[in-house]
Amino acid sequence: MPILERLTGPADLRGLSDEELDQLAGELRDTIIRTVAVTGGHLGSSLGVVEITLALHRLLESPRDKIVWDTGHQAYAHKLLTGRLDRFHTLRQIDGIGGFPRRSESDHDVMDGGHAGTGLSIAEGLATSRDIRHSMERVAVVVGDAALMSGLSLEALNDIGHRQTQLMIVLNDNEMSISPAVGAISKYLSEIKLSSAWRQGRTAYDTVTERIPVVGSRAVELSRRVRQSVVSLAQAGQLFEDLGITYIGVMPGHDRAFLEETFRRALTLNEPVLVHVRTQKGKGYRPAEKDQVSFHGAALPPIDLPADTHDRINPAGHHNGDAMASSAAGGASVASTRDADAGAPPSSSVMADRRGYPHGSPLEKGGSRGAAPEAAAEAKKTPNYTAFFAKELLELGAEDRRIVGITAGMPTGTGLAKFQARFPDRFIDVGIAEQHAVTLATGLALGGMRPVVALYSTFLQRAFDQTVHDVCQNDAPVVLAVDRAGLVGEDGTSHQGMFTLPAQLMLPNLVVASPKDEQELRSLLRTAFAQDHPFALHYPRDAGFGVPEHAPEVLPVGRGEVLLEGRDLLFVAFGPITMRAVEVAAALEPLGWSAGVINARYAKPLDRQLILDQARGKRLVVTLEESVVRGGFGSGVLEAFEEARAVDPAYRETHVRLIGIAGDRFVDHGAVSDLRRLLRLDVPGITGQVVETLELLGVAPRAAEAS
């Protein structure tokens, strides 16, 4: 009988036998694998913490007791055990279950996670609040070995040890990046340190010895040094002991019963304790165990699923041969839909003759949803912007030995892994420490190097102060490669790259650019290294448009380009949304409207003169950006018009409409194509907004007026 579907909440776990718990572990893994095969998601990390999750929920009374999941992409089993099984198939979809803890989903989620390194600070705050209120809830936080090395985590550890805040830290070590394998002596010492005899005996010894006249205090100090030396000799956790946190480890992370006993005893200690647990990322799915990098992120390789659960995984999560690695007879190969939104549609044939874009756009045949199967298949084969960035950076790195690649724990996701392989002496991965990455780049630039810091837009938010104080104040030629700019999709509110652009536009010395397509990305990257100021290059997660390759060129900084001339309307667009502007112009033509399109290229410095020249005599100017409009690109265009109106009456009748993402709420998770439709940022949505604005203004096309 299945167990998972019978659970009403985590409290039910305490009534299960060991055999039933082993079976439940297998059901959890099976559900996660089958769901992620369809929706995409963080597979490896969630499979690795199944036993940790079961042990914590059997011991702690959630939601009264608090379980904090640092980063949050390891919380899938937690979600399944806390009443979300029926909706788990909607993982990372519109109106579905989020890929990270979300308080709006369940009282068992104590924070909205998504960024690594935040868990320890949250947990300490919860524990401190408990102590101030004199209540009794217990607090545990699960943090990964990589996230533990972030600056915020280290600051939190220091404060937790200093304040002796009572909480349990579970260090989920699945990358072997903190300590080597530790033998039986370490395990033996950990058991001793958890025993009441050790703790009571140590305290009693110190108390009695301290009373000895003259030599008492010296004897106690000597005793403590001896004990510390013995622990240091056999254990890798001296850093935590030095910070004032009791270190227990290394513990086997897939022995649920042993974990339960260890956690139970650790939770009774009236002090901070860190339990170091060794787990295997991707546990229970052989391909994920063998390829931990590819199966870590939300963008997964295709997953082959046999028809029968028991052909793949036994109740304890162990393998039955290699059945998990390939489909059994009658099985179905299910590819993840994680990047179904990534194949942005090619531009229409309006651009084909003048810009070299391919003919036969699916948008010519009835809009973005009318793509022919052959066109959709072709679009999926087009590499994404990150791939074009990485390829061009390799060529630049070969030409200029001053170029240094820097990332913060994401060499694969940002494409810098290829740069690392070719130029290992000019590559730096600082781990999850974006602040350090940006300031380190400043020092390199001041020393004569040309660093490029590749970060996702959402993570660059963490280094805003360093961007202001270090990079821009020093006018250092640092290239900020802002990956995943705009809508990202299924990772939801914490990961949408919608805030970085407005934040950067206020900063002195910083050039802010974005390409209309993948080939212009290559040119803008070369432009970034050809000038001597900070340069932020924004590009999305999307696939390219399939534009024919041509030699990149250094583009004039602050210069846009006119893609289409028009009589009535003017679209001024920033980034790949420019190509949607071209499609909207084509859609408005049958309605009698003649629209021009400007590819701004630069949000800062803005090509004000080009925009004003093209806007003269137009009924409506529409700005387009896939970012928050408040303080964003469109706001800069509007400022230019307001200044022009003060001195030139010709612009006083020109209306400006800003189209982008509203800044009054976060954007939830879902496929990018669905989000663009809901936000009216796809071609039909933009067209509708423009028509509504024209109707509100009560204006007609000039051609209609003339007739």
Summarize the structure.
This protein has 707 residues and is an alpha/beta fold. It is 40% helix and 13% strand.
List the main descriptive attributes of the protein structure presented here.
707 residues, alpha/beta, Rossmann fold
Structure overview:
It is a single chain. It is built from 27 helices and 19 strands. It is of the alpha/beta class and 707 residues long. 40% of the residues lie in helices and 13% in strands. Helix 22 links the parallel strand 15 (569-573) and strand 16 (595-599). A seven-stranded mixed β-sheet has the order 9-8-10-11-13-12-17, sandwiched between helices. Strands 1-2-3-5-4 form a five-stranded parallel β-sheet, with helices on both faces. Among the domains are: 183-235, no CATH class; 560-706, 3-Layer(aba) Sandwich (Rossmann fold), CATH 3.40.50.920. Mean pLDDT is 82; it is low at 176-186 and 309-379. The protein starts with 17 loop residues before the first helix and ends with a helix. The radius of gyration is 29 Å and the shape is elongated.
What would the principal axes of the Cα set say about the shape?
A: elongated
CATH topology of the domain at 560-706: Rossmann fold
Largest sheet: 7 strands, mixed
Report the uncertain regions.
Answer: 176-186, 309-379
Taking all Cα atoms into account, the compactness measure Rg is 29 Å
Oligomer: single chain
Quickly count the helices.
27
Q: What's the count of strands?
A: 19
CATH class of the domain at 560-706: Alpha Beta
Q: Could you tell me how far the N terminus lies from the C terminus, measured between alpha carbons in angstroms? A: 77 Å
In what order do the strands lie side by side in the largest sheet? 9-8-10-11-13-12-17
Helix content: 25-40%
Structure class? alpha/beta
Tell me what the CATH architecture of the domain at 560-706 is. 3-Layer(aba) Sandwich
- Quote the average pLDDT: 82
Give the percentage of residues in beta strands: 5-15%
